[in-house]
Amino acid sequence: MSGFSLHIVLATGGTGGHMSPAEALADVLTTNGHSVSLVTDTRGAAIGSFMRDTDRMVLNAKGATGGGLIGKLRSVLSIASSTLQVRRAFKKKRPSVVIGFGGYPSLPAVLAARSLGVPYVLHEQNAVLGRVNRYMAKWAKMVALSVDGTKRVPAEVHSRVTGNPVRSTIAKSANIAYATPFGLGTIRVFVLGGSQGARILTDVVPEAILLLSEEFRSRLDVVHQARPEDIERARQLYKEGGVQAEVASYFDDVSKILLRTQLVICRSGASTLAELTAMGRPAILVPLAIAADDHQTANAEIIREAGGGIIIKEEDFCPEALARKLERLFEDLGELRSWSDGMRSIARLDAAQNLSDIIMEVSENGKAVE
């Protein structure tokens, strides 16, 4: 434990992709005797499995997504109002360091920190530096990156590759070997849409599985994350195909599911990929086509280059194409074992500790060494 206690504020957007690394860092910081507070939005606060016992401030900050000029004006006003709210809180209890994990809800905390002279660090989960982080990177003590070669990082900023922190439940399972079934054993598939679900996966995956031979359908055990309005539809399709399936909108025990999984079909959000690399779980990746700066494709390319899986673009993701690929994979599971090795080759299990080290450097010296 450190000889002194810091007060660290974690500021994060409201998706699991932002909240997961924040929670992983919070675990390290609190274990070392530091106090942690969370600043997020209503979406982040609604994800009940994340940082349940952490002191938090919930903001109404919104990004300028749609709504034209009026929408942009509302966004500016909400961020300005939220910044004043955070600034008042920081005056009452001044943080030692603020760390922003990106997303518009992180912006007010970082702006408030800068206005009060509180040092701040930014963490980027994706292979492309996000808009909020780009905007605030110039004044950051350090920009922590998840991958080498992150795109759109301004040349003048201080940056260091730390990796993307994964939650302790994932890290503790990272060294457990990947296993394929013996003979005609069960093949377990995890359809993972991120914390918000992904409709395209529900539209395509069950239909693709129905196209598989009866031999493979009878061996499958599917765990499928779907939007609440799509759950019953997915359940019915799996039932029609005689496929063992559990469908829900959210799973708290992702690490336990991944331990049993032979193949993941998912989006390519950064935190999802960090968890898959940590546990060596092969994947078919379907990047979100409308993701800002096409960052999900950039994330997925890193996995493909490492040999951890394949990419299927949204325009090519259809039941027939997916069924053909699944048939080939299930006929010879050796390719999945190779993908597992590829995933593990780029895992960064020390990411949370690396990020904590930067915070300690900033708190002690006012800056971090590049």
Structural notes for this entry:
The chain has a seven-stranded parallel sheet with strand order 3-2-1-4-5-6-7, sandwiched between helices. The chain has a six-stranded parallel sheet with strand order 10-9-8-11-12-13, with helices on both faces. The two termini are 25 Å apart. Helix content is 44%, strand content 16%. The model has no long low-confidence stretch (mean pLDDT 92). The chain has two domains: 177 residues, Glycogen Phosphorylase B (Rossmann fold, 3-Layer(aba) Sandwich); 174 residues, Rossmann fold (3-Layer(aba) Sandwich).
Q: What amount of the residues lies in strands?
A: 15-25%
Strand order of the largest sheet: 3-2-1-4-5-6-7
Helix fraction? 40-55%
Order of helices and strands: EHEHEHEHEHEEHEHHEHEHEHEHEHHH
Summary of the model, kept short:
With 370 residues, this protein is of the alpha/beta class. Helices cover 44% and strands 16% of the residues.
Which SSEs are present, and which pair or pack?
Blueprint lengths: L6 E5 L4 H16 L3 E7 H5 L8 E5 L8 H25 L4 E4 L6 H10 L3 E5 L6 H6 L5 E4 L13 E3 L6 H4 L15 E6 L6 H12 L3 H6 E6 L5 H10 L3 E5 L5 H7 L2 E4 L3 H10 L3 E3 L9 H12 L2 E3 L7 H13 L2 H11 L6 H15 L5
Parallel strand pairs: 1-2, 1-4, 2-3, 4-5, 5-6, 6-7, 8-9, 8-11, 9-10, 11-12, 12-13
Helix pairs in contact: 1-15, 3-4, 7-9, 7-13, 11-14
Give the key terms:
370 residues; Rossmann fold; alpha/beta; 6-stranded parallel beta sheet; 15 helices; 2 domains; 7-stranded parallel beta sheet
